[in-house]
Amino acid sequence: MSNKLEFISLFSGAGGLDIGFELAGWNCLYASDIDKNSIETLRQNRGTVYGQKVMLEETIIEQSDVREVNGRDILEKIQRKKGQVPLLVGGPPCQSWSSAGHQLGFDDPRGQLFKDYVRIAAETGVRWIIFENVRGLLTARGADGKPGSALEHIRTILLDAGFQTEVELLNAADFGVPQRRVRLVLIGYKVGDKPPFPSSTHAKISTESGLTKWVSLGQCLSSIPPPLADEIIRPNDSLKAQLSLIAPGSGMKSPGKRETTRPGGHWGYKQGAFIADTGNAARTVTASAQQDWIQDESLGLRRLSPRECAAIQSFPPNWKFAGKRVDEYRQVGNAVPPLLAYHIAVGLRAHIHATTVQEEVTGKTHSKLNPLKERLISAVHYTIKEERRNGESRRDVAPRRVSRLTLVGEN
């Protein structure tokens, strides 16, 4: 087993994970995605210099369907033998496990793609995998309909393939990303290779521990040039009148049946109808073109642009995105924040360098799954209780589609 810091990337998207790992000293040898705009994004940014790093310099970039990708073919293309590349990274499409995707999970073909991810991990002989997904996967239901059973099923499949797994929920804001974005990160490892999750560098409130306060949306936007004229999206007069009554940090509520555990009896805020609070870390950037609005002192009420959303996600300022505006929003919103990926990559790199004697893993397997952290188990139990209380009323009105808001300057 080689300890060279090299990795293979699947479901690469716009390159969020790849950027973070390369900045941490790893080299991406192969990147793949089925989306043509994402692949064009990677190709046009290959050779981009960020800091002292030439991005994706050694990367073979391919548009491909992971169901048709063979690990042996990847190894041949990158001129490596099985077991020589230590790491596989990627996040199989998360929409089927998200609330936006109505948590269809295994009933959605996208929910099955992780099996190909595991297959390629076995075919390439990697020692570690980094798997990122939405936080909803923690409590998603599997075939038995029980909250949490989908993740247990995924971890069991990985166990059968020789990977023990550790799971954590990481908030990107805790690592310097100007965004409150909580994602599930799973690290799969062979016997004796358990790596740590990164420690937070930031906190919502600065404490005596020395952690820096979260980076705010305002701080982020002040660090980049203002949007160009063709990047500005304004609301129509009707929507502008409604939004003018809303304070920053709030939005237009989505009507729904009253739920006893939800103050105000609503489901949340309508998509595309929220005024961002620039004094706080941004809300989660989604893959939708209906991003939050801001009250710009110079430009008035306007929507966050794709370039601003990319900055909120911590993409390099010179990273270009291919496609139309809607494609840019989608690529940015689906990405792993590069800065979060960087901290994960640094932790794994330190673990490898600190391991002076590698335990032989050939022929050894894990006998059973490690238990989840107590905090994560509690979240699953809460979901069960909340479902008992509000599940029937939720099923009566969901899935719900919020009508599209008409905008000025949207394309």
Automatic annotation (TrEMBL):
Top-level class of the enzyme under EC nomenclature: transferase
Q: What Gene3D superfamilies does the entry give? A: DNA Methylase, subunit A, domain 2 (3.90.120.10), Vaccinia Virus protein VP39 (3.40.50.150)
Q: What are the GO BP annotations of this UniProt entry?
A: DNA restriction-modification system; methylation; negative regulation of gene expression via chromosomal CpG island methylation
Active-site residue list: C94
Q: Write the Enzyme Commission number(s) for this entry.
A: 2.1.1.37
Cross-referenced Pfam families: DNA_methylase
Please list the reactions this protein catalyses: a 2'-deoxycytidine in DNA + S-adenosyl-L-methionine = a 5-methyl-2'-deoxycytidine in DNA + S-adenosyl-L-homocysteine + H(+)
Which InterPro entries does the record associate with it? Answer: C5-Methyltransferase (IPR050390), C5_MeTfrase (IPR001525), C5_meth_CS (IPR031303), SAM-dependent_MTases_sf (IPR029063)
Enumerate the GO terms in the molecular function aspect.
Answer: DNA (cytosine-5-)-methyltransferase activity; DNA binding
Its family remark reads: Belongs to the class I-like SAM-binding methyltransferase superfamily. C5-methyltransferase family.
NCBIfam families assigned: dcm
Q: How is this protein named in the record?
A: DNA (cytosine-5-)-methyltransferase
The lineage, from the top, is: Bacteria, Pseudomonadati, Pseudomonadota, Betaproteobacteria, Burkholderiales
